[in-house]
Amino acid sequence: MTTTSLPLPGTAALAALPVPAWRRTLRRAAGHRGLLIGSIVLGLAVLAAVLAPWLAPHDPFAQDVTQRLIPPVWHERGTWEHVLGTDKLGRDYLSRLLYGARVSLVIGFVTALVAGLIGTTLGVLAGYFGGRVDAVVSYVITCRLAMPVVLVALAMASLVGGSLKVVIVLLSLLLWDRFAIVTRSATQQLRDAEFIAAAKSLGASTPYILVRELLPNLMGALTVVATLEMAHAILLESTLSFLGLGVQPPTPSWGLMVAEGKAYMFFQPWVIMIPGVVLAVLVLAINLVGDGIRDVAAPDGRH
Amino acid sequence: MLTYILRRLAVALAVMLTVAVVSFLLLHLSGDLATAIAGP
Amino acid sequence: MQYGLDRPMVTQFFEWLGSALQLDFGRSFYFQNTVMELVGERLPITLKLGAMSLLLAVAVAIPLGVAAALYRDTWVDRLALLVATIGQAMPNFWFALALIVVFSVGLKWLPVAGNASWQNFVLPAVALGYYAMPSLMRLTRAGMLDVMGSDYIRTARAKGLSPARVVFKHALRNAIIPVVALAAVELGFMLGGSVVIESVYSLQGLGQLAWDSIARNDYPVVQAVVLIIATFYIALTFVADVLNAALDPRMRTR
Predict the structure, then answer these.
(1) B38 touching chain C per CB within 8 A
(2) B16-35 residues touching A, CB cutoff 8 A
(3) ipTM at complex level
(4) Which of A36, A249, C104, C149 has minimal CB crowding within 10 Å?
């Protein structure tokens, strides 16, 4: 798309200046609807989680048996006192939702981080050094892939007892596989690239090459996988909590809220509908961000 | 093609063995099994 | 000590393994039956559930993927991708419950619990299968797009074969193998992840058995179930790998 250049001297030369790559990417990012929506929603969720103590109208742990199972505001029996109603113990749903966001987001972020560290390390080592290192790492990856994640997580959680920390550790130890697979194949492709060879010829040490030269080039793929696994972790945590082996009551976790509301779901459906919808929306947002980053970083992919 | 199948088969069996070992270890290391069976 | 716990762990392991290979997993701590008996009761139900779920997922994914590829970038395509994206965001336990509320109670079409007839399996199959549908659909779509743009298809068209025939006979046949491979892997996931669905719908399947046994510290059962499910999964991924590899040399002649 070229603009007609003004006849003034110098402007033609200015118009021909290349736009820096990152700004082009940013512009593309801003135009990507999915990425935009996802980022906004995710940003709001993070904000809500961080500002929960100030945003929550009530204490999420405060029980009030006289206020049990009040429906949300749009119901005929609802009140503005409890905008999203209350649960079976009279706790305000909106407040629990806000604090529950903290649980989900923390678990998502930390798990993605730790699993990312584990997976990336394994993947880069396997991809860069090849040979026996690769054989061993590939074998470990295959073994991990052969294990049914949900079952193993359940078994381990029941052995050790469920809690926020346990969930994070457990999921981090189980969700590193895609990081490893992706970084391994990306490293293999970049291993023989010119800039690596150049660095080697300059006498750079292997750790230096790996961290300062290779890693930045993996960041694109890494962030995409990280968002994917973050969403994965959030869904898994909610499943574990739903089954009673994740975050323990009275800590609010969206999965736990669904479990607690299960007995009432026929006549007071909002107790399970609200946490479920919120979960889906958050996961959706994260997935949109991941897909968006992938599209923006490699635009020749889809359309 | 056949070599590929055989190689994958070997890996599959090795993985099975590893899973068996790992699951066995995890369950038996979670404290003394006798006390677990006997109860508190 | 009849459990042989006084012997070193390595010995214990090999004894267990030896018996396991003969399909003797010992006795459950909780029930009187042998583990194999329990598994034998529950496995068919889980397999039935898994098969139905996969069938449903594939039955929706393939037509949707083909349609999305054929009408690329139109509302059909966008709708399909939207459904896929939303499908992958919903937690399965919640979707399972929502299905019950809507279909069993609200509309009273299907039963709530138990495993008497095939109708009992419809909702669980949907709840278990919906998560696999998006990835299958995307793969079908991508595969179709790939093949449709290939020389093979263009020469077929040039020869004057009608476009519809071209698409369905040749393109689909070529694009289908990776999808079948992925379907095998997804079945593996379903078998492993059936715990939640079986628990919500009160189906006495393998997942439910594993779950209850974990809660009861019924170790022989848990060990056996984990091994069995892992075996299925490994076998399925093996099949998937071979399928994809079989595809490869043939693709080079395109």
Answers:
(1) no
(2) 16, 18-19, 22-23, 26-27, 30
(3) 0.81
(4) C149
